[in-house]
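User: I'm curious whether this sequence folds into something compact or stays loose and floppy. Could you predict its structure so I can see for myself?
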Amino acid sequence: MICTIAKADDITTGKISGTIKTSDGQPAAYVTVALKEINRSTSTGEDGSFNISNIKPGNYTLVVSLIGKKNQEKQITVQASKTTTVDFILIENASQLSEVIINGNKSPKPVTLDKAGLRALDLPQSTGTVGSRVIEDQQINRLGDAVKNVSGVSLTQTRGGVGETFSARGYSIGITGASGSIFKDGVLTNTAGFPEASTLESVEVLKGSAALLYGNVSGGLIINMVTKKPLFENGGEVSMRYGSYNMFKPSFDVYGPIGQDVAFRMIGVYENDGSYRNHVYTERKYVDPSLLFNLGKKTTLLVEGDYLRESLTPDFGIGSLNNGRAIPTMVPRSQYINTSWAYSYMNQFSGMATLNHQFSDDWHLNAIISGQGTDIDSYQASLPNNVSATGDWNRGLARANTIENDYTSQVNLTGKFKTGSIGHQILFGTELDKVVNVTNGYSVGGKNISTYIYDKINTIDLNKYQQRTDIPTALDTSRTTAPVYRLGAYAQDLVSLTDKFKVLAGIRWSWQQTYQTDIQYLLKQTYGNGVAITRYDRAFSPKLAFIYQPVSTTSLYVSYSNNFMVNTGTDVNTGQGLKPSLVDQYEAGVKNELFNGKIIANLSVYRIINSNLAVVAPFKADGTINSDNTIKQLNGQTTSDGFDIDITGHISKNFYFITGYSYNNARYTKTTGLKGSPILGERLVISPVSTANATLFYTFSDPTLKGFKIGATAFYTGSRMAGYNNTVGQAQAYSRLVPVGGFTTLDLTAGYTYKKISLLASITNVTNTLNYLIHDNYSVTPIPPRQFLTTLAYKF
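Assistant: Here's the prediction. I'll summarize afterward.
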């Protein structure tokens, strides 16, 4: 005898199912179906079918909506433990429906990092979005692989193999804490150890100044990772990714309703990677649960959490030669110069709650609280920044046990209203961040670990000297706690004077407090404080833009915005802590939505001037020569000029392309005021002169090749300067710059989908191009060689 036990939800609720067809009898895929009375919707599958489950008994209005078309509605009655079947016949035929879907889906959506929900044409700033389709088609594993699809954004450095650094418009972006400019769902996040791409719905980039909305962030860009959310429909995916060097990565993604007003999503990933670098491996375990609560017709609460455990080999590549003045191009890209036992373990967890309430169609409240903890335990050789010209290196040791805790809260109120004939779209917001870093100091053999010499090797010929393999005991000697608080309040208004003329104006007040560090001396069991006293930084960040839209699909804008950079050191004139440097950005651009949104073409030009750059003072206040690098003055200047071009197209549901090009000239335009300064005009390090990207994918739909997909992606990173910029009166008699040439990589992809099963395979860096990513002047990492990557997936 077989017994079936029904769940309580199945007994007390009902279900709606049906099919939607076009006027010529073809299945209508990707059509939105919603219940008018409650916040529930879904979309039809490839076969035109839809299902909405866990519906309370009652009378409802079922709405079928198409962008730009009149909605179709049917009155239905849902009964407990029963399925109500409803079918629709659309007025459009299959060809017309395809055009509707293309046009409706391809118009740019507001980037969520804008906070105000402005249309793309109303946002007077260059942006870029990497959507889920690109993330899937390119089999993206790392954030750096995603942002390369945005013009002007480049992966410029890797930090010991445990993090990535990006740049745009002459400015780099941090990966952690108060100096970071990477966000997850609008919240500051630590991306050490690499964020997990399997949970990303999209990646958004806002180029240039973002201080109005985010405070002390990079002047070049901020990145927002938009994660996948729970859905009120059952579905999911299981996949296996396999690649060169024994890389394998199984994952699952399951979502659906667990009640009338509660939905869930659970994502899990295991990753085990070898590497083209000898002795380097990575193992990652990741889980990402989330719940969505409908607290009423106008209120939702999203609760998310994730946990990442990572074990990897810290790897600063092949090092450099002659104290960072040369790249050892004669060394194979696989050569590994860290200790044989080097390790880095990381535990990272986060929790976040997001409340959204819609007072009316025009007024919306968003409130977020979040916390993140990052715990890293690593032990390895010290940085290879003192290697001789012949490759000899006295290897030291570096031991780290660090904790970073990040806490964030923010509230945003958006609204639309009119004063007479003038329209307003406003944003009021406030946020409070707290970042606490705890770091340990160590000794080895009774000496400070920074002075300990482990052994001697030759980075060119590893057989020249005998390497040690033992792991010396490192003793905890101190624990330093460094808290930073940030507070911001901001207001912005998009004023529509007419349908064609608009003005965007906003201002932010930022306050940052960097506490004097607390030091616990573990051996003596005493306490002390760091040398730097508690400092307070305050800044106003305004933004003003004029927008002209001659037609509904074109927008021209000019804008001014202000960024600020927190400085360290003492002002030579006042003897107090150095004030923040204020950075002015001027931008002009044009945005176009062509052919009913099938093609998006944008151009922006900019100038960014830091006219009070902090530089070491050549003389002290009393006129004597200054030899203290912490005594500075705000009379240096850098200027960054350039432009970005983006053209993207979604010509049909089968074919899309992404192209972009950028040029940047970031250099010193003033130093300490000394006539004939040797660094005047010197390019700033890290930033490439040019970058370019191009991607195209095509899926066949004719009967003979139906389900097959092909694609190609190319990325170009131009010449750049690595190392360190020179300074006036520097101790070194040689240039600290390391010139690096440009390079291009090409990836090819092919795939096949049959019903719910798909197989995707790529060859990356097809031409096996060799080039380098350089962190400062010592960590030189060759880019990956030609590799194979494939993903087998089943969607349900």
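Summary: The radius of gyration is 28 Å. DSSP finds five helices and 47 strands in the chain.
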